[in-house]
């Protein structure tokens, strides 16, 4: 409401007084925010307080310069304060990013995407704002150079800061949304004021818009920031939006190069921006492909391996046995003796440590080409191929020996044993897939039965014969 007179009656004393009253109210809320800092957020909030204070003071100085008898120096003071605003604003957004406690890979991805947008913003700032201003300036001095470069580069900073906040994964807080709204609106207002012709009357809405922008940035400071640990998200949830952003930025600079008249050296800024953007996008895509490959490898591993022990699971065991049944396999069906007592006495955590130790010992005593799988609970299966009778006996003895060794489970040591069902399959002829599946099921059932016989007999190894199967 206080901004309305500046729109309806620009350059009037009433408009100036209403505008200054609005700035005074916003400054009061800024003081309230400064006097009630959130623990652990002091540095980021202090930077925002300084940034908003510069913006409010600049607007107040500029509006006050219109009062009767006001010194001309106020206009220059306003310009300086508005340009200084970008420095603490950058520090504040950086602190907001740090407060998010994001993983290093996520921070790197954000930095690459922001670099692409920044390169595009610099190219457009040069061709749309800086270069035309330099060509049309009647006299170029030190202060005019600062203004010609300062505001366009400041708009690039606003774009960079807003995009950085938007690219942070997870749900944005109210404070972050207000900052994005304030920065985004400020960017649009600045660009519109620079590009619209003077007769468009941009002064009627330029300063009033900044009254609303300052209010939004101040309101962001009044919203409490939640604990960073409660805001840690699982991953990036805007991949489609991000790729669209990169594509728009790259296409925009590419089209600008095509539409530019033949300027010779004047094309260098756009060419440099294109090279930077392409290099960053390629690095971004390379990282995305690598992450996708890692995720696929992880999923494949999880689908075929036991999560606790890292051994092959039932699915992987059956897949390996489809090849092993054609190469005279030997199965060791292992069940731990005394494992239930470990769980009952020491707890399931100690039981998990025992299972991991068993997995490590079984893997250590077999060959790399052999398969060690955990079927579930305390049941394990070892599948070997091409073992002679003496090797089978020796391996069975080694398995019994290593599993009988004491196992350290932290503050105590436990001793278990093993009951083993041992089955060797002689060479078979060619098998159809159906015959192989039936044979695998029969082998596991026979070895399982032999293991239970060994357990009923007090442990050790029970060897079972299997009928010859031909194709």
Description:
The protein has 471 residues and is α+β, with helices and mostly antiparallel strands. The protein has 16 helices and seven strands. A five-stranded mixed β-sheet has the order 2-3-1-6-7, sandwiched between helices. A two-stranded antiparallel ribbon has the order 4-5. Helix 5 (86-99) packs parallel to helix 7 (142-167) and helix 6 (104-136) packs antiparallel against helix 11 (268-304). The protein is elongated.
- Strand content range: 5-15%
Task: Specify the structural class.
Answer: alpha+beta
Helix count, DSSP H or I runs of 4 or more residues: 16
Order of helices and strands: HHHHHHHHHHHHEHHEEHEEEHE
Low-confidence stretches: 229-238
pLDDT average, as an integer?
A: 81
User: How are the strands of the largest sheet arranged?
Assistant: 2-3-1-6-7
Short structural summary:
The chain is α+β, with helices and mostly antiparallel strands and 471 residues long. It has 16 helices and 7 strands.
Key traits:
471 residues, alpha+beta, five-stranded mixed sheet, two-stranded antiparallel sheet, 16 helices, 66% helix, 8% strand
């Amino acid at each position: 409401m206080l901004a309305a007179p500046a729109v309806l009656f620009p350059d009037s004393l009433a408009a100036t007084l209403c505008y200054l009253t609005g700035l005074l109210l916003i400054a009061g809320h800024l003081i309230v925010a400064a006097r009630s800092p959130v623990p652990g957020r002091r540095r980021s909030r202090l930077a925002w307080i300084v940034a908003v204070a510069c913006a409010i003071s600049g607007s107040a100085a500029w509006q006050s310069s219109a009062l009767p008898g006001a010194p001309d120096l106020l206009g220059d003071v306003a310009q300086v304060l508005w340009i200084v605003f970008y420095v603490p604003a950058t520090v504040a957004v950086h602190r907001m990013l740090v407060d998010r406690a994001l993983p290093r890979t996520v921070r790197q991805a954000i930095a690459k995407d922001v670099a692409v947008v920044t390169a595009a913003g610099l190219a457009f700032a040069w061709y749309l704002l800086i270069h035309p201003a330099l060509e049309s300036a009647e006299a170029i001095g030190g202060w005019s150079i600062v203004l010609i470069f300062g505001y366009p580069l400041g708009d690039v900073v606003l774009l960079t800061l807003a995009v950085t906040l938007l690219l942070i994964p997870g749900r944005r807080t109210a404070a972050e949304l207000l900052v994005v709204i304030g920065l985004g609106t400020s960017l649009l207002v600045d660009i519109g004021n620079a590009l619209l012709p003077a007769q468009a009357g941009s002064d009627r809405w330029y300063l009033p818009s900044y009254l609303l922008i300052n209010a939004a940035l101040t309101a962001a400071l009044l919203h409490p920031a939640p604990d960073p640990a409660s805001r840690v998200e699982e991953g990036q949830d805007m991949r489609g939006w991000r790729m669209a952003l990169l594509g728009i930025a790259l296409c925009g600079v590419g089209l600008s190069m095509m539409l530019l008249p033949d300027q010779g050296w004047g094309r260098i800024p756009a060419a440099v921006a294109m090279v930077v953007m392409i290099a960053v996008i390629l690095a971004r895509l390379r990282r995305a492909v690598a992450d996708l490959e890692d995720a696929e490898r992880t999923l494949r591993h999880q689908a075929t391996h036991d999560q606790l022990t890292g051994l092959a699971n039932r699915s992987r065991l059956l897949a390996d046995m489809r090849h092993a049944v054609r190469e005279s396999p030997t199965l060791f069906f292992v069940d731990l003796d005394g494992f239930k007592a470990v769980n009952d006495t020491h707890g399931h955590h100690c039981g998990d440590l025992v299972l991991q130790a068993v997995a490590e010992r079984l893997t250590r005593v077999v060959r790399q080409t052999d398969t060690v799988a955990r079927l579930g609970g305390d049941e394990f299966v070892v599948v070997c191929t091409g073992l002679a009778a003496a090797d089978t006996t020796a391996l069975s003895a080694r398995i019994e020996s290593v599993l009988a060794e004491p196992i350290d489970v932290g503050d105590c040591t436990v001793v278990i044993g093993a009951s083993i069902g041992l089955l060797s399959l002689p060479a078979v002829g060619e098998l159809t897939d159906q015959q192989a599946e039936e044979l695998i099921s029969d082998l596991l059932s026979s070895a399982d039965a032999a293991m239970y016989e060994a357990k009923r007999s007090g442990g050790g190894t029970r060897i079972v014969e299997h009928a010859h199967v031909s194709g």
